Amino acid sequence: MIKPYIQLRLLTLDEPDPSATKDVRRGTELSPDDIALIRSADTFFLGTVNPERGADASHRGGPPGFVRVDARGLWWPDYKGNNLFNSFGNLAIDPEAALLYFDFPSGRTLHLSGTTQIEWGVVGRAGDDGGTGRIARFYLDRLVAGRLLGAHETRHLPYSRNPALTD
């Protein structure tokens, strides 16, 4: 059984390219290409920490566009999952977070670090694609972007039961 919201991908390793790291960009603002990658992503990875239990890395997935970018930063709806609330529990204690996006066809990566605030709202509000009433709002501090994956996608099967996006 495929776990919810996980896209099935086949990756192929690329030949090492030492020149790929020369185009790495570091900064504090998203470029138009960064925003396009975020808005088209159906997958990203979320890193959080709990001072008593350690670090956690979790997958987040949905239909392309489930992560929104607006004037305040970027945000995504919380989908029903395993009900352990590891990431959201960690963020409630320590708002620092890291997000990692891959452009799987090209191997381009985007690593964001900053803080995340959980917004508890009304179920069914605009953007509540997961039907939980919760969204995570991320505020960027720093980024690293470049072709750092060293692999590219050769096959992709989207998860067939992603929830529909809401406005």
Describe the structure.
It contains two helices and ten strands; from the N terminus they run E-E-H-E-E-E-E-H-E-E-E-E. The chain has 167 residues and is mainly beta. The protein has a single domain (8-157), classed as Electron Transport, Fmn-binding Protein, Chain A (Pnp Oxidase, Chain A, Roll). Strands 2, 3, 4, 5, 6, 7, 8 and 9 form an eight-stranded antiparallel β-sheet that branches. A two-stranded antiparallel ribbon has the order 1-10. 23% of the residues are buried.
Features:
167 residues; mainly beta; Pnp Oxidase, Chain A; 8-stranded antiparallel beta sheet; two-stranded antiparallel sheet; 10 strands; 10% helix; 44% strand; globular
CATH topology: Pnp Oxidase, Chain A
Percentage of helical residues? 10-25%
How many separate domains?
A: 1
The fourth-level CATH homologous superfamily is Electron Transport, Fmn-binding Protein, Chain A
Query: How far apart, in Å, are the first and last alpha carbons?
Result: 30 Å
| Mean pLDDT across all amino acids | 85
The tally of beta strands, per DSSP, is 10
Largest sheet descriptor: 8 strands, antiparallel
In the CATH hierarchy, what is the class?
Mainly Beta
Query: What Rg, in angstroms, do the CA atoms define?
Result: 16 Å
- Helices, by number, come to 2
Shape: globular
Based on the coordinates given, report the CATH architecture. Roll
Regions with little confidence, pLDDT below 50 for 5+ residues: none
Structural class, judged by helices and strands?
mainly beta
Proportion of residues in extended strands: 35-45%
* Series of secondary-structure elements, N-terminal to C-terminal: EEHEEEEHEEEE
